Amino acid sequence: MNKLQTDTLVIGAGSVGIAVAYYLKKHDPSLDVTLVDCGQPMAFTSAQSGENYRNWWPNPMMRAFTDRSIDLMEEIALESDNILQMTRRGYVLATRQIDIDDHLRELEAGYTDSPENQIRMHVGDANGGYRPAIVEDWKSAPNGVDVITDKAVIEKTFPYFDKEVRSVIHIRRAGMISGQQMGQYMLQAFKEAGGKRLTGKVDHIDHAEAFSVRLAGAGNFVQATRIVNAAGPFVGEIANMLGIDLPVENWIQQKIAFEDTKKTIARTMPFAIDLDPQCLDWDEDERGLLAEDPDFAWLAGELPGAVHCRPEGGDRGTWLKLGWAYNSASVPVSFTPEFDDQFPRSTVHYGGYYTLTKENWPLLGPTEVDGFYLAGALSGFGTMAACASGDLVARHMLNQDLPGYAAMLSPMRYNDPAIVATMNAQQNPGIL
Ligand SMILES: Cc1cc2nc3c(=O)[nH]c(=O)nc-3n(C[C@H](O)[C@H](O)[C@H](O)COP(=O)(O)OP(=O)(O)OC[C@H]3O[C@@H](n4cnc5c(N)ncnc54)[C@H](O)[C@@H]3O)c2cc1C
């Protein structure tokens, strides 16, 4: 039996655990930090990410949180000659509606307190200063949001959109990164700063003065003063080992990638989202049969909006990625998740779990067990929010200044009636 000793043990070497380990060593190089995972780093949920980022949220707290993460990703891009391949063509949200007041209210709610994120209306104005995202360079992209309601401008700029699209909202501080490169960069920096790594599956934790963490099979124990639980979809299982019941669910999300052999979409298209609910294109007989079957009736009715698509492989690539977060069924987690076998076989079909709270805010910070921290529930935004999550948890642990959103993202927020009221008042949790 081996007994290893460390000050801080981070469980989980996905984007989030790696970012916590990286920012702990960055803020305090003398700290003894060990990162443990039962598999290879960045190989579970983080390997499935669409690698998109945005500061678009219907509430200002999540907008400020992701803005902070984008600031930190920019820092890494600058110091590493853009090793994380950050580009910035934005997110374009398209709808067939002319009356987009609801969408505008959400935009205002998200951006109101952020002067650098102006909302620019291009109403009925064919040359009203809208700058399409021709280049992908993040440094030259504007901030803020452009709202375009001029049909001619929409058709000229986005000729591949449905001709019925009447309004387009272009979120500018958004784009793509290589989440894998970012993870590898932070992991390398962590190791160079003296951070340690272990391989093993945590299957039991005892807590007295310190934590005694058992690794399955290997007969190893790790003695740690503090633990960060960054186990992705297994964040709930690790918390259970210390008697904590987390308010998280796991939903399977699946995506497809395929070659755009007909070149239907320009390679310069930003990440594009169809906001409108959809009905699948069945004939009447098929729709009737589906509607009669309790397992498939949902396919016959209206499905939620937010089908999204983007070019994959850069400006000279030929592939597209397509996603649609229509599924919201909570399932037990497994290291070998099962996907729907109805997806077209001619596509590359992949996916993983969205691990999320009801309000879709992550759990980042201390828990009621002294020395036990959470870095989880990053839903569909854990790649883009990894840096701000790692930085925030490290700040909590090192007693450093905390950003304004810290209390709202803390696992202790459920004890604060004002925060609970804000959570409950939220209409749109921004799941994509
Ligand atoms: C299909 C899909 C598309 C997505 N697209 C985007 C996107 O475009 N942009 C974006 O920002 N986010 C996206 N996300 C979300 C993002 O991928 C996740 O939020 C993020 O990867 C979560 O990282 P993590 O480190 O928390 O979890 P993980 O990557 O799952 O890492 C957790 C680690 O913990 C380890 N572990 C678990 N249990 C144990 C144990 N008992 N002992 C030891 N190790 C353990 C696992 O092996 C794993 O390596 C997407 C997610 C999915 C599923």
Write the layout of secondary structure elements.
Blueprint: E1 2-11, H1 15-27, E2 33-37, E3 52-54, H2 60-79, E4 91-95, H3 101-111, E5 119-122, E6 145-148, H4 151-157, E7 167-171, E8 174-176, H5 179-192, E9 196-199, E10 202-207, E11 211-215, E12 220-229, H6 235-240, E13 249-259, E14 271-274, E15 278-279, H7 284-292, H8 297-300, E16 302-303, E17 307-312, E18 319-323, E19 348-356, E20 363-366, E21 372-376, H9 386-397, H10 406-409, H11 417-425
Parallel strand pairs: 1-2, 1-12, 2-9, 4-14, 5-6, 12-21
Antiparallel strand pairs: 3-8, 4-7, 6-7, 10-11, 11-12, 13-18, 13-19, 14-17, 15-16, 17-18, 20-21
Helix pairs in contact: 1-5, 1-9, 2-9
Give the termini distance in whole angstroms. Answer: 46 Å
The dominant shape is globular
Instruction: Give the low-pLDDT segments.
Output: none
Number of helices: 11
Counted beta strands: 21
Helix content: 25-40%
CATH architecture of the domain at 1-51 and 178-248 and 359-432: 3-Layer(bba) Sandwich
**The CATH homology group name of the domain at 1-51 and 178-248 and 359-432:** FAD/NAD(P)-binding domain
Structural class by helix and strand composition: alpha/beta
Q: Using the CA coordinates, give the radius of gyration.
A: 22 Å
Task: Write up this protein.
- It is a single chain.
- The chain has eleven helices and 21 strands.
- With 432 residues, the chain is of the alpha/beta class.
- The chain has a domain at 1-51 and 178-248 and 359-432: FAD/NAD(P)-binding domain, CATH 3.50.50.60.
- It has a nine-stranded mixed beta sheet. Strands 1, 2, 9, 10, 11, 12, 20 and 21 form an eight-stranded mixed beta sheet that branches.
- Helix 1 (15-27) packs parallel to helix 5 (179-192), helix 1 packs across helix 9 and helix 2 (60-79) crosses helix 9 (386-397).
- The longest helix is centred in the N-terminal third of the chain and has 20 residues, at 60-79.
- The chain is globular and about 70 Å long.
- The structure holds flavin-adenine dinucleotide (FAD).
